[in-house]
What we know:
Layout: H1 14-29, H2 37-51, H3 56-59, E1 64-67, H4 94-97, E2 100-103, H5 106-115
Parallel strand pairs: 1-2
Helix pairs in contact: 1-2
Amino acid sequence: MSKTSITSYELPTTADIETAARNFRDAVTNPRIRNIPDRVAEANNALSKIILQPVAAQLAQKRLLIVGDGVLNYLPFAALSLPGKSGENGNPPLIVDHEIVLLPNASTLGILRQNYSDRQAPTRT
């Protein structure tokens, strides 16, 4: 995406994404697993390959706007690394080179509008 264009790509099946996302989330949050670097790296690579690989070359050091759906809403994207990127400190998480902005999807905004439609704006005195 640039100031004058937007790029999109088709994601793999929901089942594939959910499996990879749950494996990654468990690898970085489960106290018994998160201290096993190979397990975390394996889960990261699997998820990165299916959701970030198609756009990895376009990311540079840009801000990432992420509109997740389903299980992707629960992922710590800042901890995810780009596939195949490695430096002297291994494969750094996205947060090292990118500002991560998580935005709600349209369904979430619709639900919020319904839930709060009866609220009045605060009055200023």
